[in-house]
Amino acid sequence: MNVSTVVRRLAIGLIAIVLAGVVRPAAAQLTLGSPADPGRLALSAGAFDITPSDGSRHGGTAGEFRGEYRFPDTLWIFAPFVGMSVTTDGAFYGYGGIGFDINFTPNWVLTPNGAIGYFGRGSGTNLGSSTEFRTGAELAYRFEDMSRFGVGFYHTSNAGIGKHNPGEQSAVVTYSIPLSLPLY
């Protein structure tokens, strides 16, 4: 069993344990979207390429730091976001996308999301294209002041538009700070 298999199984196990503790049996009523939440500044730190390809001569796991502005729900239950991430091996990813909240309780929120953006690899993992797509989800606890603390797991790849498409997985811890910015 290789390291990537162990990491995947640990991540799935962790998500299953958290969800089991969050989701109330049968009485749970899910709600979609968070129309009362303001826009948020989300700051993240974690690991980029947590399951590197065995045959890769360049790249591998690196530290990752992200900053995003997450708009309030503006398109029914959907909330757009813009952001950028950098890695300790010099990679850069500027992106925009959309996500939506699945509220298990007033405090526990799962946010699936997708983005597209420009990727510069630095001296790290070659993802095969400057255009990359990111999909993933964040499980967060929403505090009374509307800030959130959570963990996110993401996959980034060029979706086959390049000849080389290894993809990568990231895991981050995120703290979101509510902002009240006028949107004119």
State the main characteristics.
184 residues; mainly beta; eight-stranded antiparallel beta barrel; 10 strands; 11% helix; globular
Range of helix content: 10-25%
The largest sheet has its strands arranged as 2-3-4-5-7-8-9-10
**Poorly predicted regions:** none
**Mean pLDDT over the full residue set:** 86
Compressed to H and E, one letter per element, the order equals HEEEEEEEEEE
Gyration radius over CA: 17 Å
What's the multimeric state? single chain
* Overall strand count: 10
Overview of this protein structure:
By secondary structure, the protein is mainly beta. It has one helix spanning 3-22; strands at 31-32, 39-48, 62-70, 78-87, 92-100, 102-103, 108-120, 131-142, 148-157, 168-179. β6 (102-103) and β7 form a beta hairpin. The termini are far apart. The relative contact order is 0.20.
Present the secondary structure layout.
Elements: H1 3-22, E1 31-32, E2 39-48, E3 62-70, E4 78-87, E5 92-100, E6 102-103, E7 108-120, E8 131-142, E9 148-157, E10 168-179
Antiparallel strand pairs: 1-6, 2-3, 2-10, 3-4, 4-5, 5-7, 6-7, 7-8, 8-9, 9-10
Please sum up the structure shown:
Helices cover 11% and strands 48% of the residues. It is mainly beta and 184 residues long.
